[in-house]
């Protein structure tokens, strides 16, 4: 009995996919824009813009200096060119670095005061900003689950839900601009401690101009009572989004965090350069899941988001554990390597990834597992799917330092090709500098098999349903690591992003 | 039920390689027909052409299911119209649970026919009952489609799919290949349980032994893309004793 009931649960999820796909006959479904009056900073980037952003956020002097320092370093740096990406030259003076809905100039005191147009935007995206139970949507799930949401619209956080309930548990979940005001000591202590200002070109840019993002602090011994999530939406035209997220998990704490992203369809490219820093202390555990669905550009490769993201977790103390799960289906260009610094002994880092590139999308994504502590473990499972004219690269570093004795890594990279004009590449970097550690790497490349598709179609599925089923099967090991709500969205996305890739 | 008239088909690649050369066949509702023939006579090609697999071109002739032209339809439309092919080599689909696959297939067909989809509960109830008859346990329903299945498990799984989809016209392509005696009995019992006045079968096989379990009404001998002889079950026994050589010589004479 128990076995079959479990089957039924998964069953519900998979079926949901198929239904969702059928209900969304179109392509990118978040391509609409919200008409709303915005307050922009002048176009272009210089020290005055950095000062202006800092002033708009009413920041303390130290943070302004920190930003200016980052800006000056950025000026001396060059855009990285080692990825297998063809990145058109970006004119940084043609962008807006700050855009805020006018209604947000006087910060609303509660969600009730937020501009209804903004609330509508999120409702349309299916993001609950009202404090309500989120139904898991799975047959057999009797209880709804609570998910706290921080919604970021262009440069600012619109509001955060369930703050009170979280505060009772001692959890701080707010926008980073609020955290700077209300918890400056925490921000000052941890900001830039995982990803320094000059870490790389895009991290330096972000450090200079980041406008908002989420801040999470889980006190020692606390298991966060609900999932936390941030939803990023780029709306304004020619506006870069530079959010910065900082998560601190104190000793023995536990949190699961979700991140989702969408943007309107436009025929110009838009820039997104985010930084996520996670500090994990002794025995703490952080699970970070992303469903990235920025506008990927149209079928001719016009428009789309350039997604240059630096994400890193520092397992600073013993037995700290971090798990990255990402589903990357959007963006014209993805440059992203969520990493784990396994500093403490017996620390654990995991990275599960699905990267889909269709039409003219380019993705160069993977992870870095840096083993510094003894007996540290890491696991990488990457599923890359290429269709159309897309190029999809897995790039990953596994580094075993001399002191990381008896450490282990297991890497599995699978690539799936649909059609004959796309490419899949696997670029592993492995450095082992002690004799007792072990690194395993397995890689496969396969094509969606005509026999599989015919088999599905003979049983009554149409071609797109068949491809969705086969590809979701290919991704299963990663999909099952996602929280339930995300797993369904992700399965649907997998199918939608591959529409038109066969036949 | 199934009416095939002067069917000619060739491979799309290697053009000019003709495989079916004027095959005609009529199967009435409720009848079980067997096709026997030596290797390379075109038996499997016939099943692929009828089910709409890519790679074959029909150059002449027709095939209809209950009067509807099969050859004009997409494979999934043929399936929804009631055509089922039990594969000689069932395909593995890693990561896709057997149950998920079955339910997606059942509901895709129901939807195509404008029927209401089965709820999770109803579906589960039906699957459990039918799986039990074929000695398919819960574990096997959970596993990915055909991955790591033994030969016998794969064939039982095909019959389970057939039982769930309730087709009108079932083609069994060498369902006996790779089966031991016990598995053959199990599979045959499954097929016999589905025999019904409204359902017809076309059983493709090399050997007479399967026909001991699934008793045919009509037996056809196929050679070089055509039916060369048609008879009752005794024809299969004749082949078993004397081989195909005599029949082929007779046909050429």
Automatic annotation (TrEMBL), chain A:
GO biological process: iron-sulfur cluster assembly
Domain of life: Bacteria
Domain SUF system FeS cluster assembly SufBD core, chain residue ranges per copy: 232-474
Segments forming domain SUF system FeS cluster assembly SufBD N-terminal: 163-224
NCBIfam families in the record: PRK11814.1, sufB
Family membership noted in the UniProt record: Belongs to the iron-sulfur cluster assembly SufBD family.
PANTHER family per the UniProt record, alphabetical: FES CLUSTER ASSEMBLY PROTEIN SUF, UPF0051 PROTEIN ABCI8, CHLOROPLASTIC-RELATED
Full protein name: Fe-S cluster assembly protein SufB
Source organism per UniProt: Roseinatronobacter bogoriensis subsp. barguzinensis
UniProtKB/TrEMBL annotation, chain B:
ABC transporter domain sequence ranges: 2-249
GO molecular function annotations of the record: ATP binding; ATP hydrolysis activity
InterPro entries per record: AAA+_ATPase, ABC_transporter-like_ATP-bd, ABC_transporter-like_CS, FeS-cluster_ATPase_SufC, P-loop_NTPase
CDD domains (alphabetical): ABC_FeS_Assembly (cd03217)
Pfam family, one: ABC_tran
Coiled-coil regions listed: none
Keywords annotated in UniProt: ATP-binding, Nucleotide-binding
Family label: Belongs to the ABC transporter superfamily. Ycf16 family.
PANTHER family: ABC TRANSPORTER I FAMILY MEMBER 6, CHLOROPLASTIC (PTHR43204)
Protein name per Swiss-Prot or TrEMBL: Fe-S cluster assembly ATPase SufC
Native species: Roseinatronobacter bogoriensis subsp. barguzinensis
Lineage: Bacteria, Pseudomonadati, Pseudomonadota, Alphaproteobacteria, Rhodobacterales
Gene expressing this chain: sufC
């Amino acid at each position: 009995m128990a076995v079959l009931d479990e089957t039924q649960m998964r069953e519900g999820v998979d079926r949901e996919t198929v239904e969702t796909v059928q209900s969304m006959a179109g392509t990118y479904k978040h391509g609409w824009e919200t008409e709303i009056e915005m307050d922009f900073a002048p176009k272009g980037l210089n020290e005055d813009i950095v000062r202006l952003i800092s002033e708009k956020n009413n920041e303390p002097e130290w943070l302004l200096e920190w930003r200016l320092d980052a800006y000056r370093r950025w000026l001396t740096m060059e855009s990285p060119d080692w990825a297998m990406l063809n990145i058109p030259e970006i004119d940084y003076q043609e962008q807006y670095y700050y855009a805020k809905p006018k209604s947000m100039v006087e910060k609303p005191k509660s969600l009730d005061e937020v501009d209804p147009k903004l609330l509508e935007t999120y409702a349309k995206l299916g993001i609950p900003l009202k404090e309500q139970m989120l139904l898991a949507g799975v047959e057999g799930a009797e209880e709804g689950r609570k998910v706290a949401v921080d919604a970021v619209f262009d440069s600012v956080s619109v509001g955060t839900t369930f703050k009170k309930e979280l505060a009772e548990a001692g959890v701080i979940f707010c926008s980073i601009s609020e955290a700077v005001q209300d918890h400056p000591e925490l921000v000052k202590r941890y900001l830039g401690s995982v990803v320094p200002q000059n870490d790389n070109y895009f991290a330096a840019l972000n450090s200079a101009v980041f406008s908002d993002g989420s801040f999470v602090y889980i006190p020692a011994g606390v298991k966060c009572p609900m999932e936390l999530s941030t939803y990023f939406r780029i709306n304004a035209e020619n506006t870069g989004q530079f959010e910065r997220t900082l998560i601190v998990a104190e000793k023995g704490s536990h949190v699961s965090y979700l991140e989702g992203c969408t943007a309107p369809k436009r025929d110009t490219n838009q820039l997104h350069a985010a930084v996520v820093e996670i500090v994990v202390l002794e025995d703490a555990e952080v699970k970070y899941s992303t469903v990235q669905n920025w506008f990927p550009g149209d079928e001719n490769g016009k428009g789309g988001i350039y997604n240059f993201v630096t994400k890193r977790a520092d397992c600073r103390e013993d037995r700290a554990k971090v798990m990255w799960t990402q589903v990357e289906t959007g963006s014209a260009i993805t440059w992203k390597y969520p990493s784990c610094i396994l500093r403490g002994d017996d620390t654990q880092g995991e990275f599960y990834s699905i990267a889909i590139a269709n039409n003219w999308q380019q993705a160069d994504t993977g992870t870095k597992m840096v083993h510094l502590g003894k007996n540290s473990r890491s696991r990488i499972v990457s599923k890359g799917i290429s269709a159309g004219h897309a190029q999809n690269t897995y790039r990953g570093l596994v580094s075993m330092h001399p002191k990381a004795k008896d450490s282990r890594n297991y890497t599995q990279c699978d690539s799936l090709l649909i059609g004959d004009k796309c490419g899949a590449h696997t670029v592993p970097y492995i450095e082992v500098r002690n004799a007792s550690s072990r690194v395993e790497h397995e890689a496969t490349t396969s094509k969606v098999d005509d026999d599989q598709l015919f088999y599905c179609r003979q049983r009554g599925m149409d071609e797109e349903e068949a491809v969705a089923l086969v590809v979701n099967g290919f991704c299963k090991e990663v999909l099952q690591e996602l929280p339930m709500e995300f797993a369904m969205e992700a399965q649907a996305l997998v199918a939608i992003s591959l529409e038109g890739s066969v036949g | 039920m199934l009416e095939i008239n002067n069917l000619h088909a060739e491979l799309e690649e290697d053009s000019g390689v003709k495989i079916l050369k004027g095959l005609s066949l009529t199967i009435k509702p409720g009848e079980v027909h067997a096709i026997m023939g030596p290797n390379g006579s075109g038996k499997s090609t016939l099943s692929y052409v009828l089910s709409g697999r890519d790679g074959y071109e029909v150059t002449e002739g027709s095939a209809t299911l209950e009067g509807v032209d099969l050859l004009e339809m997409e494979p999934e439309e043929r399936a929804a119209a009631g055509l089922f092919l039990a594969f000689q080599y069932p395909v593995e689909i890693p990561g896709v649970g057997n149950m998920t696959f079955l339910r997606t297939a059942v509901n895709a067909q129901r939807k195509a026919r404008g029927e209401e989809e089965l709820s999770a509960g109803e579906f589960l109830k039906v699957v459990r009952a039918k799986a039990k008859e074929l000695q398919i346990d819960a574990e096997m329903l959970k596993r990915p489609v055909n991955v790591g299945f033994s030969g016998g498990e794969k064939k039982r799984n095909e019959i389970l799919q057939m039982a769930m989809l309730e087709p009108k016209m079932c083609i069994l392509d060498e369902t006996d290949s790779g089966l031991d005696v016990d598995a053959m009995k199990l599979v045959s019992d499954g097929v016999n349980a589905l025999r019904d006045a409204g359902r017809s079968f076309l059983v493709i096989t090399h050997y007479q032994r399967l026909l001991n379990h699934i008793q045919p009404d009509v037996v056809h001998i196929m050679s070089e893309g055509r039916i060369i002889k048609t008879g009752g079950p005794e024809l299969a026994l004749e082949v078993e004793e004397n081989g195909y050589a005599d029949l082929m010589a007779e046909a050429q004479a």
